[in-house]
Amino acid sequence: MSEAPGVQERWAVRSGGWALLLLAILFSTAVRVHTAFADRNFDREDARGMLKSDPALVYYFTERVLESGGGLPADFRADPRIHHPDTTDVLEQFTVSQEFLIAWAYRSSGTGLPLHVFAVYVMALTASLVALGVFLWTRSATGRTSWALLAAFLALALPANYRTIGFILVREDLALPLLVLHLGTLAGAVARGGAWRFALSGLWLALALASWHAMRFCVAIEALLAWGWFLATGANVFRRPAAWLMLLAPWAAGLLVPVLRANLLLLSAPSMLALSLLLAARFPAGSRRRQIIVAGLSGVLLILGATFLSGTLGASSYAHVTDVLLAKLRHGGRLPLDPTQLSFDARLLWQGPFATLEWSWGFFQLRGGLLLVLVGAVGCAFGARAWNGEGLTVLASLGVLPVAWLFERLVVLPGFLLPVSAALLLSRWRSSRWAFGVFGAVLLTQALSLQGFADGRVISWYLPAGQAAERAAMLDWVEDNVPPGEAVVSDFMNSPAILAQTGRPICLQPKYETADSRRRAQEFLETYFHGSPEGLRRLVRERFRARYLVIDRYTLGTLSAYAAGIGPGQSWAPGTPAALFQSTKPGDLDGVPGFELVYRSSTSPRSGGRAALDFYRVYELP
Fold this sequence. Notes:
- The chain is 59% helix and 4% strand.
- By secondary structure, the protein is mainly α.
- Among the domains are: 174-316, no CATH class; 321-356, no CATH class; 462-620, Rossmann fold, CATH 3.40.50.
- Strands 3-4-6-5 form a four-stranded mixed sheet. Strands 1-2 form a two-stranded antiparallel sheet.
- A hairpin with a 2-residue loop joins strand 1 (79-83) and strand 2 (86-88).
- Helix 5 (115-128) runs parallel beside helix 8 and helix 8 packs antiparallel against helix 9 (195-209).
- It starts with 10 loop residues before the first helix and ends with a strand.
């Protein structure tokens, strides 16, 4: 296969481009680290009050790996602390990946840094590697190192690619760069051929899938775009020699990686769509109609068959994702005032990073990329040189905008796609001088905007200010007073903090990829907001077999009420646990039969006088 134009660039140009790319990645890493540490609520000495929800759970896994000398902890296949009183197969239920990366790097570094600070450095670097995938992709498609550098610089200048600053440990900081590396390597395989490129592209994809549950949704978008593009144009990547090797690593991972095997990756929609394209590619090149018929029919039949078989085998359920997606489409992306219009699963997921993206905020995060794609498309439409091979990339960059609107967390998808599309479009202009000038001007403006975005940034994850100090004091009390091995019941934000910082077993955790985890959350929230104190006591003592209950007025009252079916402005029914335990009146807190108040933030000397918020109460249930 012939090489893409520009592959014959001088060695000095190529090596200089790689050097500039490395400097850009290191600069982006420094921006992430500096912005995180500059936040007044970020504690570089003590992580107790900062870690909660998903990051705390990942931190717990990382600590366990470190305790095991960098190897697999002995009880990872039957952990007794995450879903007390049941045991949990960690490798089957969670996408454990970055934990090993951080643990191995931490052990090798010999650094005296606190683990959470070291994790910020590592994840800042991996998140910045998105630029490497963008560079590879753009260079393969345009054949020019200059355009690849501009695209990479733009990706590092868009705020959309900095959503996770300061979160310490989140899955997409590793999984998304792996996805972009897959796409960049795949672009090189399509442009220059080579069995090893297709195989390497598949390896990056397998690692991405094993690193984040939501990656399966991202890969489904990729598969749908490739499938739809084939039906519209007849272009099929699997007609390339050795392209089937791209599927080898993901399908092997579907058999060998416990979490992918448990969730039946081999029977997922992306796998079935890829298989239908592979079958269609077996027909002669001239029989396009026959290929389309085969791809269409086999794709539908394979997905229907795989769905039926998945239900028969009882795979871990992703039904909540479909549920919230349909609910968002039905309600136009607006959260209904009446929560009973949604199922519990949809209410549970429709919050935080899975909330609908505000248009103004989304435009701010992407405006440089959007502007360049618009200008580039207009330029191509009016007299520029013909372009045709990049249509799928441009379509994808625009097609994922509605996806990013539906799920704020996925704004990073157009964050890395738009720079590639912009470079592809402007590289087709007749006047390269004008094209470089337009791109450079927009890039400079976007870089200045990023500076304003980073300077003085307050990380919302650590708000409200002061809660971290109260959480740290509560964790101190739990560690000092709750006997080792005794389970503690709390909400999904604080439970992982209790687990990571005290080692006490918990009963609720923030990952909802299994039906059991969602039903536990539903039982707890509905009992707390709609039940009786006696009902809550039975749930804690009999269902969860625990004696300690931690109440966080902020997480339960502000963040969880809607999921429990309490709409905005609605008050809690008198006599419910919510009405009693959310109160600040001593009589309400002390006089509940069967609940002995043993700790309260506002009366704790360990809060250092910073417990004005009075968020935490701990009850012992005799």
